Amino acid sequence: MYELTLVNGIALLLAGVVAGFINTIAGGGSMLTLPALMLLGMPADIANATNRVGVMFQSITGLKGFHKEKKLDTGAMVSIVVPTLIGSAVGAVLASWLPVDVLKPVLLGSMVAIALVMVMKPSTMRPTGEHVRTITSHPQAAIGLFLAGVYGGFLQAGVGFMLLAALAGSLRYDLVRANALKILCTGAFTAVALGIFIWNDLILWVPGLILALGSSVGAHFSVKFAVTASQKTLSWILFVMVLLASGAAWFS
């Protein structure tokens, strides 16, 4: 049975801070917040929906930070967001009536594939950003963004890795700008998913807003770190988070 006490409220706040930080520069933060919400006694579908409140707030904070630092490619926003949004609507509808475990093999397989690429061909996920491609010139990236949207609308956990694979791996954005666009996509499809979850009355707002506060704080400091860190440092953080998230998905 769901119960929120002072102690687990503080724990949820701290989980939000950590998740907001790692989601903004890599991904996998929901691997921490989803279990934290479920430890409060929430069913998986309620935790999945409530988690989106924190993701929405951290996305807004991160997006404002990257835009302020002039790291957001505003000219590409529409072409990148549209396929992601379409996919998220499909995924959120699926999440309303399919069990969460349905996409676990997809999550694990995708993250293992990304980790292997980073080991075998590290330049793929460590682009310089000097020769950025567009959706028009590289349409297969739109398919990757659509599939990331489907997964993100369904579950959220680990979707940042899939978005980075499309944005850095396919479109060749450097990891700072790829993360900025990743946050944009995440915020866009989270807004769609939130609307569907609110319509279905699946969100518990008090823990959701506690999580949102912590996530916003984490995202704020994460942007400050991301714009000063080297590409090599960011790629190593991404690699470690992919491995940790893969392990969490395997044993969950």
Describe, in plain words, how this protein is organized in 3D.
By secondary structure, the chain is mostly helical. It has helices at residues 6-25, 30-39, 44-68, 77-95, 104-120, 140-154, 159-170, 175-199, 205-226, 231-251. The chain has one domain. It is 74% helix and 0% strand. Helix 5 (104-120) runs parallel beside helix 7 (159-170), helix 5 (104-120) packs antiparallel against helix 10 (231-251) and helix 6 packs antiparallel against helix 7. 52% of the residues are buried.
Instruction: Provide the succession of SSEs.
Output: HHHHHHHHHH
Question: How far apart are the first and last residues' alpha carbons, in Å?
Answer: 21 Å
- What is the number of helices? 10
Note the beta-strand portion: under 5%
**Compute the gyration radius: what is it?**
17 Å
Helix content: over 70%
Unreliable stretches covering 5 or more consecutive residues: none
Largest sheet, strands/sense/barrel: none
SS-based structural class? mainly alpha
Total DSSP E strands: 0
